[in-house]
C-alpha cells in the first residue's frame, strides 16, 4: 500500500465503530470532526487500533488525541507511510 | 435526598411494557403466544452446542441486533443490552413517555443483570488468544459490565436521574422495581426498569452449567417441567422485559393508562446451606412481607407466578412456601416461563409484565409441558390451557441463585 485514502478511513470507521444515524459516511466528511460525526474518544481509539493492524502503521496514544477529523487521520497515516 | 412516603395518589404504577422473549418479540406477540401455550424452547442455534451437556434453550429468534439497535450503539454493546435497549424503547413508546420533553434529572434507570456481556466477551477473548491483545476491541471495557444496559439507556434518552443495576440473578427483576419505587419517593418522576439477560454462548453456558441445575434433556417439550414428578432442572433462555414506572397521580395527570400498581414487596435471603441438612428457604417470609405491605390477605390474591426452578428440592421448597401462606391448593399457580426458559435477570421482569397483562385481560396464562403435578406439592397449577380470571391481584415470586428471594404484588387500579 502506498497511500491511505479517505475511503480506506471510511471503511475502517464504519467497520469497527459503527455508522452514525445522522451522517452519511459517503458524504464529504474529511474535515468534519469525529465528535460532530458522532464518534467519541473510544471510537477513535478503536479506529487507530484497526489502522495499526490493517495498514501496519503504529499510532501512539498522543497522536490519537491529535486526530480530530478523518482527514487528519488520513494525513497522519500517509506521513508515516512516506517516512 | 429526602424520602417522602407515597400517599394514595402517589403509589407506583406501571404505564409501559416492552417484551423481548423467546416466544415473542413485542408485548402483543409474546402475550398471544403465551396465552396459546406456544413455547419458544428449542435446540440452541447461536453456537454449535452439540458437544455440551445442555443443548436446549429459549432464544429470541426473531431478533436482529443490527435491525433493532442503531449501528453506533450496536458495536459497543452486547446482545443482552441490545435486547434491553429494544425492550426499553418499546416500553417508553407504550407508556407514551417523550424523554425529550421531561426534566432530564427526573428520569431514572434501574435494570437487573446477571451475566453481563458474556457473548461480547467471548468474541474478545477469542481475539486475545488467537491474535493477541492488540486485537481486543476497546468496547470490551464497557460492553461486558452489568450496568452497561442501564448506562446506554440513560445516554440514549438523556435520563440523568439516579441510575443503577441490581445483580441478584432471577430475583433482580423484582428487586429493581422496588428500587424504582424508592426513587419515585425521591426526585424521580419516571423510572425505566426491568431486566434482560442473554448468555447463550459457550463461555456463558459453561458458567451456568457449573451450578448443576440445568436440564440436559434434548426434547424441548420435556426439558423444563417445574413441579412435575419428572422435573429435571431448568432450561436457560435469553431476553426479558422493561417497564415504565411512575406515580399514579403523575401518570393519570398526563393521560397515561396504567396496567396496574405495585402494591407490596418483600425480599429475604436464605441461610447458608449446611451439608447433610435440608436447606432452609426464606421465600415464605418474602411472600408475607409483600402481602402485609399491600394490606392484602391471602384469599384476595388471584394468582401466583411461581419461580418454578424445575429442580425437585427447590420446587418442594417453593410449593411449601406457597401452601403455608395460601393453604393446600389454595391459589392458582402458574409458570409461563416454561415457554421461555429461565431468563435470569429478565425472568421475573417478564413475569411481572405477564402478571400485569393477566390483570388487564382477566386471564391466567398456562404452565406448559407439566403433565401431572407431584401430589406432595399440593399446588393448583394452571396447566395446559389458560384459565379465565378475574385477576385483580397477582403475586410474582423469584429466587436468585445464591439465596435471594423476592415477592412482589401487583394490583389493578
Automatic annotation (TrEMBL), chain A:
Keywords: Phosphopantetheine, Phosphoprotein
Gene3D superfamilies hit by this protein: ACP-like (1.10.1200.10)
Domain annotation Carrier: ranges: 1-81
KW Ribosomal protein (keyword) present: no
Taxonomic classification: Bacteria, Bacillati, Actinomycetota, Actinomycetes, Streptosporangiales
Protein name: Acyl carrier protein
Pfam families: PP-binding
Domain of life: Bacteria
From TrEMBL, chain B:
Keyword Membrane found: no
SUPFAM superfamilies reported for this sequence: Thiolase-like
CDD domains, alphabetized: CLF (cd00832)
Segments forming domain Ketosynthase family 3 (KS3): 9-412
Signal peptide: none
Short name of one Pfam family: ketoacyl-synt
Coiled-coil segments: none
InterPro entries: Beta-ketoacyl_synthase, Ketoacyl_synth_C, Ketoacyl_synth_N, PKS_Beta-ketoAc_synthase_dom, Thiolase-like
Family: Belongs to the thiolase-like superfamily. Beta-ketoacyl-ACP synthases family.
UniProt-recorded name of the protein: Ketosynthase chain-length factor
The organism of origin for this protein: Sphaerisporangium flaviroseum
Amino acid at each position: 500500500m502506498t497511500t491511505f485514502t479517505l475511503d480506506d478511513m471510511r471503511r475502517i470507521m464504519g467497520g469497527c465503530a459503527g455508522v452514525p444515524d445522522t451522517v452519511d459516511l459517503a458524504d464529504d466528511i474529511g474535515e468534519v470532526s469525529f465528535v460532530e460525526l458522532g464518534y467519541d474518544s473510544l471510537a477513535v481509539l478503536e479506529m487507530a487500533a484497526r489502522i495499526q493492524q490493517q495498514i501496519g502503521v503504529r499510532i501512539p496514544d498522543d497522536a490519537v488525541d491529535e486526530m480530530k477529523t478523518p482527514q487528519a487521520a488520513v494525513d497522519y497515516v500517509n506521513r508515516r507511510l512516506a517516512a | 435526598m429526602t424520602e417522602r412516603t407515597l400517599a394514595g395518589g402517589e403509589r407506583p404504577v406501571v404505564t409501559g411494557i416492552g417484551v423481548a422473549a423467546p416466544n415473542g418479540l413485542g408485548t402483543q406477540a409474546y402475550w398471544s403466544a403465551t396465552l396459546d401455550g406456544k413455547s419458544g424452547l428449542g435446540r440452541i442455534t447461536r453456537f454449535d452446542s452439540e458437544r455440551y451437556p445442555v443443548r436446549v434453550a429459549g432464544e429470541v429468534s426473531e431478533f436482529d441486533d443490527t435491525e433493532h439497535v442503531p449501528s453506533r450503539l450496536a458495536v459497543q454493546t452486547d446482545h443482552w443490552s441490545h435486547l434491553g435497549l429494544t425492550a426499553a424503547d418499546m416500553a417508553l413508546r407504550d407508556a407514551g413517555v417523550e424523554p425529550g420533553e421531561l426534566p432530564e434529572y427526573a428520569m431514572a434507570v434501574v435494570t437487573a443483570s446477571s451475566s453481563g456481556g458474556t457473548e461480547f466477551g467471548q468474541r474478545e477473548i477469542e481475539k486475545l488468544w488467537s491474535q493477541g491483545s492488540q486485537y481486543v476491541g476497546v468496547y470490551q471495557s464497557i460492553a461486558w459490565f452489568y450496568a452497561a444496559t442501564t448506562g446506554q439507556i440513560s445516554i440514549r434518552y438523556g435520563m440523568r436521574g439516579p441510575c443503577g443495576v441490581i445483580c441478584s440473578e432471577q430475583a433482580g427483576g423484582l428487586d429493581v422495581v422496588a428500587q424504582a419505587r424508592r426513587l419515585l419517593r425521591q426526585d424521580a418522576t419516571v423510572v425505566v426498569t426491568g431486566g434482560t439477560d442473554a448468555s447463550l454462548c459457550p463461555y456463558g453456558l459453561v458458567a451456568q452449567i457449573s451450578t448443576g441445575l440445568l436440564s440436559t434433556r434434548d426434547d424441548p417439550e420435556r426439558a423444563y417441567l417445574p413441579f412435575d414428578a419428572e422435573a429435571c432442572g431448568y432450561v436457560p433462555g435469553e431476553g426479558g422485559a422493561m417497564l415504565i414506572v411512575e406515580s399514579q397521580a403523575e401518570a393519570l395527570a398526563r393521560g397515561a393508562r396504567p396496567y396496574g400498581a405495585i402494591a407490596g414487596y418483600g425480599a429475604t435471603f436464605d441461610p447458608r446451606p449446611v451439608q447433610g441438612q435440608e436447606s432452609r428457604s426464606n421465600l415464605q417470609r418474602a411472600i408475607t412481607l409483600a402481602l402485609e405491605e399491600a394490606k392484602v390477605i391471602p384469599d384476595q390474591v388471584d394468582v401466583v407466578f411461581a419461580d418454578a426452578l424445575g429442580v425437585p428440592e427447590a420446587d418442594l421448597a417453593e410449593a411449601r412456601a406457597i401452601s403455608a401462606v395460601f393453604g393446600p391448593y389454595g391459589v392458582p399457580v402458574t409458570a409461563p416461563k416454561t415457554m421461555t426458559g429461565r431468563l435470569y435477570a429478565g425472568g421475573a421482569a417478564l413475569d411481572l409484565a405477564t402478571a400485569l397483562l393477566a390483570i388487564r385481560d382477566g386471564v391466567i396464562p398456562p404452565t406448559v409441558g407439566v403433565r401431572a403435578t407431584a401430589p406432595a406439592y399440593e399446588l393448583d397449577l394452571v396447566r395446559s390451557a389458560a384459565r379465565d380470571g378475574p385477576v385483580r391481584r397477582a403475586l410474582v415470586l423469584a429466587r436468585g441463585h445464591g439465596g435471594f428471594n423476592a415477592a412482589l404484588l401487583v394490583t389493578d387500579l
